[in-house]
């Protein structure tokens, strides 16, 4: 188990380093980095000064080594806009996204497992058909558009919910709902599909031959086995939830990591962009480890 | 009904598929919608292309369902008085072309790399898999944002970025299939007859992997449309004067309270397109699955 | 005791269809049979004969749709099974009628311990005398012969061997002492020696509890070993029924007769071609070994596993060498190494004087033309996307110098006719053929490059008994005409009896006995060979425990 965790951490470290290297060289190889780092309207003098100050006149491999050394010293650079440590900015925004993502993911997983298994229990029924159309709709919906239409109806039209910002329950409703749509839609289909194949599998015949009650067969045997693939997909969807978070946070003015990312990109605050990448990558790594451990706990055939 | 008459000769595959399609009204509607959309995207711009760019002072923010200005204005006009219906048709061409290019690129690259990584056990297979892990372990939208941020937004870059973020899906599926097919008896049989790697890969394995990749491509098309729309909505996708449906939603976002239709129609177009693709894909899965296929069949009972 | 009271299950006129777009497929057609308390009824039939569907109906395990029960009644101890509601059905299953299946790994839930899965039987039927459930589970496991049952109850299905898993299934089925146990091909996936043990266990349990057994099998020897009465099914219909002894010894229906003639034991010995054994050596295998490194556990050292261990043999031109062994004996590894599909750890193999394992490039290409392989699963060994013409002509596409392209079509027709197929079959795809026909196509493909030696790896094991016989005869015929040498690998000792000139018996990677066929069968030297020969089940009517005895004992216990 320990050796597994070690191997897994090593792979993730390689992935994160690979990502950071990729970004580093992309920025250096595709033009003048000071054009990326500094605001668009900064003067030529400012750019030269900036280049010298940051060692941009050095050879590129030297810059890269310098960059790695700074990383080891936990120096992630300064935010140009906010004049403080870029990592501090990123870490401030991160909990906001985490809260939002956690609520959305938990709700959509629970709901999807319930809806998906009920649909699979009676395939072809009215409930199954409605669930399938609703879930396909959720998986197909452009989240930014749903968010806008939501604002149009509930904030502008009925004035029930705030258009943006953070605060009490009302501020959570629309962001969570929009963020839930895609994972819910995809998960319902995965749950339904794995449940259907689980219900058709030989051990379910055994359970029927034993005389077990149908409810117990569906929830005790079929669902228990279906959970394994569902967990894997849910893990991938949780990673993908950050995509949704970028859009949702931008539209609803939620001060999380997604909004920070977009803002920093638009304001060319490069150190913050890199810090958010690092924070997100680490969070995803922790999530993946948790998923693997959960998988091992649920499937006795898997031992690391 | 003619369909249920006793058959004198077996139907061709296409006929069977069409008959199944007729029985599922959602799938049929989706297929018809997509056919209409694709014809409009190919031929529409030749027909209304000029109208889409024509400014009209009198039609500024014209609300929809006003039939006095001619049928092109039936969905209203934007802030510069351009007819939204015409712009939707031109936008359809851009949206679908970008998505198609990205899907074709990612399927070709991912399929080729997957064949290689699955069949060969050399160091580059490991490298390919690690690179795919890096891309997979990070939210695709964030990755696309970073790359577009450094490379600068343009149509070519947009296609490249969308393709890169989707490559791992094809790569992994293809590799998994190859790993399985490689151990199949007919590959051993071919090798025992003296077939070389080239023959095994291209005559024996590729034809069996291709249908799987095509199925993923169909579902992925919807995902790519959503990703492109989100990028364009966030301002890092397609740049003016070119536009896609996503960019149209972004343009209309500022006028939500005064002219809701500018953002509403293009978003609805995205939703209907992706929904149709997903409904068709889910129908195709059911037809392809021997355990589920009877649900779309007209079951004929014996006389008692 | 009157015969009428004895009858526990009475099935009348059962007809079951499977629905699809086309005409409904009739799986079972007007099948009627009765089962008496304490007896064993064997339903004998080849694949697709409808034998599993008829028992599935008794348990209510057929999904409708796509299944459709057209007609029939089934009364069990006075109850009509066809009009039970879900709850009555549930109450009956597992308590009064129980079932075991062919592939216990798939039929046990992988994520629960076997102890828990057995306990579910008690819990489902409100028979959970709190706390004692665990004790009863352990007792059951002990009864079916699981060693260290107290500990092993907490193991998961994948931690047991195939035979033990079937014992677990049996424990689950007999937990509540059912009146009827339905056994659907319970030993088909098992090795012969394990099969014998499982059959013994079933007989013992039947004697103890007096339950009736309905056993479904395609294997005549298993059927003979178990049956008091036999039903023979073909294409959904009962073609013959009666007391086991009568059916097996004086079969009336032509189908039954064909089946029984196909059993290798019952066939008369064919004339042996003495000349073959004096032929010149074609293949000499010296000290062939294949070792794998296995990792046993978390911290364990890597352990060496010897799949093939110092094997030597010689094959002469025109000769058939049988290699016999159970699963894991290393017989298939030898085949794969001789075909250069896997590389050996050590050893040499001289084919016509050249060491196979040293061949490279063009020399290897020439070798591959002279040696061909026929695989166990003919469907799996052909690319499903290729038509028969492409499949058979593949050797010519690979080795362009064998045959000019213009002659391919004609040669394909010749080869198809040689293996007993029709010329127009060339345009079809593998899935459009039956198992036996597919194996003929595979043989035609093997013949395409005019080989001198063909390695048959379990080439007939996946086929029905009657088809097995035909394919073996085809191979023997081709050998006479073309002078081929065969290495015939199988787990089924009887099948090689009338085909192989010499036999190699393998166990755990080593050759334990090698002899000429007649001599080996007449006086097996090694105890493993003796065990293999003995584990072929003996007919029940020739054993001590005849039907009458067990029936009367059962009746007494039942009261």
Structural class of chain B: mainly alpha
Unreliably modeled segments of chain B: 1-9
- How helix-rich are the residues of chain C, as a percent range? 25-40%
What does the average pLDDT of chain B come to? 84
How are the strands of the biggest sheet of chain C laid out side by side?
6-7-8-3-9-10
Order of helices and strands of chain B: HHHHHHHHHH
Distance between the termini of chain B: 21 Å
Question: Which overall shape of chain C is indicated by the principal axes computed on the Cα atoms?
Answer: globular
CATH fold field value of the domain at 281-316 and 328-490 in chain C = Rossmann fold
Q: What's the end-to-end separation of chain C, in Å? A: 11 Å
Largest sheet of chain C: 6 strands, mixed
Strand content of chain C: 25-35%
What is the largest interface, and how many residues per chain? A-B, 54 and 48 residues
Helix content of chain B: 55-70%
Radius of gyration of chain C: 26 Å
Task: Name the features.
A: 304 residues, mainly alpha, 12 helices, flat, C: 559 residues, alpha/beta, Rossmann fold, 6-stranded mixed β-sheet, 20 strands
Describe this structure in words.
With about 300 residues, chain A is mostly helical. Chain A has 12 helices and no strands. Chain A starts with a helix and ends in a 6-residue tail after the last helix. Chain B is mainly α. In chain B, α3 packs antiparallel against α4 (about 125-135) and α5 packs across α6. Chain C is built from 23 helices and 20 strands. Chain C has a 6-stranded mixed beta sheet with strand order 6-7-8-3-9-10, with helices on both faces. Chain C has a 6-stranded mixed beta sheet with strand order 16-17-18-13-19-20, sandwiched between helices. Chains in contact: A-B, A-C, B-C. Chains A and B meet through α1, α6, α7, α8 and α10 of A and α4, α5, α8, α9 and α10 of B.
């Amino acid at each position: 188990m320990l050796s597994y965790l070690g191997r897994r951490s090593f792979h993730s470290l390689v992935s994160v380093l690979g990502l950071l290297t990729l970004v580093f060289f992309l920025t250096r190889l595709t033009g003048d980095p000071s054009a990326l780092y500094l605001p668009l309207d900064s003067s030529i003098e400012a750019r030269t000064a900036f280049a010298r100050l940051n060692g941009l006149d050095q050879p590129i491999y030297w810059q890269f080594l310098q960059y790695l050394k700074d990383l080891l010293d936990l120096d992630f650079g300064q935010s140009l806009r906010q004049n403080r440590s870029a990592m501090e900015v990123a870490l401030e925004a991160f909990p906001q996204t985490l809260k939002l993502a956690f609520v959305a993911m938990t709700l959509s997983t629970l709901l999807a497992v319930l809806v998906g298994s009920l649909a699979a229990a009676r395939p072809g029924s009215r409930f199954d058909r409605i669930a399938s159309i609703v879930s396909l709709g959720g998986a197909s919906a452009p989240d930014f558009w749903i968010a806008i239409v939501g604002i149009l109806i509930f904030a502008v039209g009925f004035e029930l919910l705030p258009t943006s910002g953070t605060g009490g329950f009302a501020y959570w409703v629309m962001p969570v709902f929009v963020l839930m749509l895609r994972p819910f839609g995809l998960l319902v289909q995965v749950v339904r599909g794995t449940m259907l194949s689980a219900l058709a599998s030989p051990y379910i015949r055994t359970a029927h031959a034993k005389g077990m009650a149908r409810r117990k067969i569906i929830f005790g045997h079929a669902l228990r086995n279906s959970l394994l693939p569902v967990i894997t997909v849910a893990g991938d969807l949780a990673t993908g939830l950050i995509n949704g978070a970028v859009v949702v946070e931008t539209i609803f003015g939620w001060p999380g990591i997604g909004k920070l990312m977009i803002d920093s990109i638009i304001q060319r605050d490069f150190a913050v962009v890199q810090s958010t990448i690092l924070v997100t990558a680490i969070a995803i790594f922790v999530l993946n480890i948790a998923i693997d451990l959960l998988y091992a706990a649920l499937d006795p055939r898997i031992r690391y | 009904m003619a369909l249920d008459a006793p058959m004198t000769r077996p139907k061709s595959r296409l006929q069977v598929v069409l008959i199944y399609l007729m029985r599922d009204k959602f799938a049929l509607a989706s297929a018809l919608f997509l056919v209409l959309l694709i014809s409009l995207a190919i031929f529409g711009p030749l027909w209304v292309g000029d109208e889409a760019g024509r400014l009209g002072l009198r039609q500024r923010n014209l609300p929809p369902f006003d039939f006095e200005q001619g049928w092109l204005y039936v969905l209203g006009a934007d802030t510069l008085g351009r007819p939204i219906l015409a712009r939707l048709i031109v936008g359809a061409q851009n949206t679908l072309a970008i998505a198609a290019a990205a899907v074709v690129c990612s399927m070709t690259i991912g399929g080729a790399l997957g064949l290689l990584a699955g069949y060969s056990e050399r160091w580059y297979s490991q490298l390919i898999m690690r690179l795919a892990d890096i891309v997979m372990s990070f939210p695709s939208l964030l990755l696309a944002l970073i790359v577009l941020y450094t490379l600068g937004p343009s149509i070519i870059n947009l296609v490249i970025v969308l393709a890169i973020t989707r490559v791992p899906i094809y790569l992994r599926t293809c590799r998994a299939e190859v790993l399985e097919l490689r151990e199949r008896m007919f590959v051993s049989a071919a090798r025992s007859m003296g077939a070389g790697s080239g023959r095994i890969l291209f005559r024996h394995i590729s034809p069996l992997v291709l249908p799987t990749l095509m199925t993923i491509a169909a579902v992925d098309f919807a995902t790519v449309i959503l990703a492109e729309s989100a990028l364009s909505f966030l301002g890092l996708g397609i740049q003016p004067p070119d536009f896609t449906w996503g960019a149209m939603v972004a343009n209309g976002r500022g006028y939500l309270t005064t002219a809701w239709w500018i953002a509403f129609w293009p978003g609805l177009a995205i939703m209907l397109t992706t929904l149709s693709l997903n409904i068709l894909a889910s129908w195709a899965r059911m037809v392809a699955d021997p355990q589920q296929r009877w649900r779309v069949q007209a079951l004929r009972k014996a006389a008692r | 005791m009157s015969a009428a009271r004895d009858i526990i299950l009475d099935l009348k006129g059962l007809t079951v269809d499977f629905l699809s777009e086309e005409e409904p497929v009739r799986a079972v057609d007007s099948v009627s049979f009765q089962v008496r308390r304490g007896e064993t009824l064997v339903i004998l039939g080849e694949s697709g004969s409808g034998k599993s569907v008829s028992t599935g109906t008794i348990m209510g395990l057929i999904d409708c749709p796509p299944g459709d029960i057209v007609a029939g009644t089934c009364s069990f101890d006075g109850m009509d099974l066809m009009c039970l509601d879900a709850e009555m059905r549930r109450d009956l299953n597992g308590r009064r009628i129980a079932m075991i299946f062919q592939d216990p790994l798939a039929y046990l839930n992988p994520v629960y311990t076997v102890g828990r899965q057995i306990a579910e039987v008690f819990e489902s039927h409100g028979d959970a005398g709190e706390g004692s459930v665990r004790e009863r589970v352990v007792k059951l496991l002990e009864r079916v012969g699981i060693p260290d049952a107290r500990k092993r109850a907490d193991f998961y299905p994948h931690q047991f061997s195939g035979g033990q898993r079937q014992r677990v299934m049996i424990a689950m089925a007999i937990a509540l002492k059912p009146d009827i146990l339905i056994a659907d091909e319970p030993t088909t996936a098992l090795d012969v020696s394990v099969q014998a043990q499982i059959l013994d266990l079933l007989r013992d349990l039947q004697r103890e509890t007096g339950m009736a057994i309905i056993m479904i099998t395609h294997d005549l020897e298993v059927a003979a070993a178990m049956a008091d009465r036999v039903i023979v099914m073909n294409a959904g219909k009962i073609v013959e029924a009666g007391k086991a002894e009568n059916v097996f010894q004086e079969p009336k229906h032509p189908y039954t007769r064909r089946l029984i003639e196909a059993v290798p034991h019952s066939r008369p010995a064919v004339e042996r071609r003495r000349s073959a054994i004096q032929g010149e050596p074609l293949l000499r295998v010296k000290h062939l070994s294949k070792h794998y490194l296995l990792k046993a556990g978390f911290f364990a050292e890597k352990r060496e596993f010897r799949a093939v261990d110092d094997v030597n043999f010689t094959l002469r031109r025109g000769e058939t060498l049988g290699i016999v062994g159970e699963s894991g004996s290393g017989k298939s590894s030898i085949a794969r190494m001789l075909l250069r599909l896997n590389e050996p750890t050590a050893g040499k193999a001289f084919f016509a004087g050249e060491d196979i394992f040293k061949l490279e490039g063009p020399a290897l290409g020439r070798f591959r033309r002279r040696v061909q392989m026929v695989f166990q699963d003919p469907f799996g060994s052909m690319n499903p996307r290729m038509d028969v013409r492409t499949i058979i002509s593949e050797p010519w596409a690979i080795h362009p110098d064998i045959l000019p392209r213009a002659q391919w079509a004609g040669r394909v027709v010749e080869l198809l006719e040689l293996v007993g197929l029709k010329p127009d079959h060339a345009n079809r795809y593998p899935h459009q053929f039956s198992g036996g026909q597919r194996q003929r196509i595979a043989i035609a493909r093997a013949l395409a490059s005019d080989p001198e030696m063909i390695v048959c790896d379990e080439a007939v094991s996946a086929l029905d008994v009657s088809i097995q016989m035909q394919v073996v005869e085809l191979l023997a015929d081709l050998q006479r005409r073309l002078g081929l040498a065969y290495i015939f690998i199988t787990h089924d000792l009887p099948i090689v009896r009338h085909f192989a000139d010499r036999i190699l018996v393998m166990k755990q990677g080593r050759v334990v006995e090698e002899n000429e066929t007649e001599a080996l069968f007449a006086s097996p030297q090694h105890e493993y060979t003796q065990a293999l020969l003995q584990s072929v089940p003996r007919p029940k009517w020739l054993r001590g425990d005849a039907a009458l005895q067990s029936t009367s004992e059962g009746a007494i216990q039942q009261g």
